[in-house]
Amino acid sequence: MHRRLYLALITSSLLAVTAAGCAAGSTDSTDSTDFGSAAQSIGACGLGDEVLSVRTYTTADIPELTALQKAQFVTAFRESAWNDITTVEEAFLHADDHELRATILRDSGTGQRYVQVDYHVGDNPYGAVLYWNTTVVGAAIHDGYPEECGPLTYDYDQGDTAPECAGFLTYVNTASYAALDAYLPSNVAQAIVDARTVAPFSSIASVVAVNGVAETRLQQLLTAARAASLVGASCSGIYDQIATSATEATAIVALANEANAEELHGILAFEINQTVVDSLIAERPFATAAEVSETYRVGTATFRALRNAAAFRGP
Fold it and tell me: What is the dihedral sign for C-alpha 162, 165, 169, 170?
């Protein structure tokens, strides 16, 4: 019996390889190989009722995998008896026929996307369903049966204030009226003092909830917090009401520049009007997170989703 290893990988570079591999016959939308109960038209535990793409890979594709893709492969392979492997090379070595197949799934009701990884080690299929752009297992496949089923959707949100920018909230919560008044209109400074007396600010959203505070006032407050040495260079800035670290900003720019349309649609599946994907593609290359934020139709929800996805996309 020929033995197979199948892996679903999700980033744009791998999807690009899928397109390039068509001529070589390495990409297919269906596969007649018998996978037993693991080869469902939907993912394990019902995570995903639509198959978006399928591709078979060989060891020759390893150099093109990103760090996230390799980590996904290792995570899924550890669902087999080889639960101590640490590298993608080891996984290929122990996989039957040293091959893998990538299957991207989508839930039509929620828009959530997944990566299902099926492979054979011996006579039985193993694998996992991973949430899109993560190494988090939504369902395990053991001996062909789904187990340890997780929720349909994964909470990607990381809050609206990066730890590197937490000094912004410290400043807004502790600055005197006089200090605030030096940067803001007097009525806004007083409104902030009154609001924090009732409850300390715990997020950017709670600051924006104060009457008179919007994007311009946030930037003025950030300037004041930097002047007070409470926010340093590791905080890139506040974009669309999301306080973003320098590391996050770099990842956001990379995502906006490199992700193909399919990946962006997956990230922004919650949006009714997804013309923002066209805008992002048309405006790139981006040099800064601010440029991404300023793109037509990119607002707080979109920027937050891009930040969340970038955080899980890996280098």
Answer: positive
Tokens for 257, please give them: 């520049």
User: What was the pLDDT predicted at 116?
Assistant: 86
Q: What single DSSP character describes residue 164?
A: G
pLDDT tens digit sequence for 278-299: 999 999 999 999 999 999 999 9
The residue among 284, 113, 31 whose CA lies nearest residue 40 is: 31
The predicted structure's pLDDT at residue 2: 38
Nearest alpha carbon to residue 133 among 289, 280, 267? 267
The tokens for 258 are: 């490199």
DSSP class of 127:
E
β-strand partners of 100? 57
Q: CA torsion, points 154, 54, 31, 79, in degrees to nearest 10?
A: -40
Sign of CA dihedral 258, 280, 270, 18: negative
Q: Quick one: which of 13, 18, 30, 120 has its CA closest to 76?
A: 120
Q: In Å, how far are 120, 221, 304 from 168, measured between CA atoms? A: 51, 8, 18
HSE-up of residue 55 (Cα within 13 Å, Cβ side): 25
Q: Kindly give, in sequence order, each residue whose CB lies less than 8 Å from that of residue 162, ignoring residues fewer than 6 positions away.
A: 235, 243, 244, 245, 248
23-34, pLDDT tens digit by residue? 333 444 444 344
